[in-house]
Design brief:
Layout (H helix, E strand, L loop, with lengths): L10 E3 L23 E3 L5 E3 L4 H5 L4 E3 L7 H5 L5 H17 L6 H17 L15 E2 L4 E2 L4 E2 L15 E2 L8 H6 L8 H13 L5 H15 L15 E3 L7 E3 L3 E3 L3 H6 L10 E2 L6 H6 L3 E2 L7 H7 L6 H10 L1
Parallel strand pairs: 3-4, 7-8, 11-12, 11-13
Antiparallel strand pairs: 1-2, 5-6, 9-10
Helix pairs in contact: 3-4, 6-7
């Protein structure tokens, strides 16, 4: 039967039923052929390994374990590591898209086996660099590598969920995989800045909690003055004085230590609106972020201060006092 392995006449005995623990809703490709045999002419057939059916069964046919192959016969099977990696990633996409439908134990088994395979074949898994799906498990969902660090900066003591995560302890054994595909050892300044941008785009927290998070981030980034900020061409979003949480580009915001003037200048006498940084942001932080002082933006100071001072003549004011 196996004397001549050619694409036209060779048939392989495939595994018809999925392995134990395989998600019921997920396609098992071998189930399409009740005859248990498949031709090489129109199929990619993989030699079964201990974990391959679980992490690629929706994409390729699995050769039954009972089948024996000579070295010559194996060479005719299209089962290179690079090709296997493509199938594993395609299968993982299906798992990620429907992970809520899989039991927790089953999901963790697939995740661990997939990570193990990818880590052992990092050099052949180049497609993971451009993988569009969030693929890093953080305990309750998958996120993109940009949202993860192996651990948080030891000098930063504020939780960043749901905008940034650290790798769970039980997955630390795959450190080599995560580092190879861009996960930093510690939370970076760029990631902290990205959190503020994410909050501006969509706030998923109570406004007071989001404000606390932003203030902690800005204080951390400017902890050592401007020397801490090595982020050229980065847009910083900062909270401004407003009835609700509102973030604006730091280049469009001003600061002032004068409480009365800051509140008054939220809308000047000329109708020009000034976006004044939130009062909980210190002037030192504002300076490190290169936020302009309010005094550099005010025009017609005499008119402004005349309008916020006494309006009526002194004699009228004295008469009103006596009358009162």
């Amino acid at each position: 039967f196996f004397n001549t392995l050619t694409a036209e006449y060779s048939f392989l005995h495939i595994q018809y039923s999925p392995p134990e623990g395989y998600p019921k809703w997920l396609l098992w490709k071998g189930g399409k052929y009740p005859s248990h045999f498949i031709s090489l002419s129109n199929s990619v057939v993989l030699v079964k390994s201990d974990i391959m059916p679980l992490i690629a069964g929706s994409q390729v046919y699995m050769v039954r374990k009972e089948c024996a192959f000579s070295a010559e016969e194996l060479e005719n099977l299209n089962c290179s590591t690079a090709l296997n990696s493509k199938h594993v990633l395609a299968h993982f996409k299906e798992v990620i898209d429907h992970y809520k439908e899989i039991s927790n134990d089953g999901l963790l088994s697939i995740i661990n086996h997939t990570y193990k395979f990818l880590m052992e074949h990092c050099c052949e898994c180049n497609d993971l660099h451009t993988f569009s799906h969030p693929w890093i498990w953080v305990g309750n969902k998958f996120v993109h590598p940009q949202m993860v660090a192996m651990k948080q900066d030891r000098q930063f003591h504020y939780g960043l969920d749901p905008y940034h995560y650290t790798i769970p302890n039980e997955l630390y054994i795959y450190e080599k995989l995560f580092l190879h595909f861009g996960v930093p050892l510690e939370t970076t300044d760029q990631q902290l800045v990205a959190v503020t941008a994410d909050i501006k785009e969509k706030c998923e927290l109570e406004e007071s909690e989001a404000l606390d998070m932003i203030i902690c981030i800005l204080n951390h980034l400017t902890k050592h003055g401007e020397r801490k900020l090595h982020l050229p061409d980065v847009t910083f979003y900062v909270p401004i004085e407003s009835q609700s949480l509102k973030l604006e580009n730091s280049k469009d915001v001003v600061y002032s230590d004068n409480v009365c003037l800051r509140k008054f200048m939220a809308k000047s006498m000329t109708g020009t609106e000034y976006m004044v940084i939130h009062s909980r942001i210190s002037s030192n932080v504002a300076k490190c972020l290169h936020i302009a002082p309010l005094s550099t933006r005010i025009s017609g100071k005499e008119c402004i201060f005349r309008n916020i001072s006494q309006h009526e003549p002194l004699t009228v004011r004295l008469r009103n006092i006596v009358h009162d």
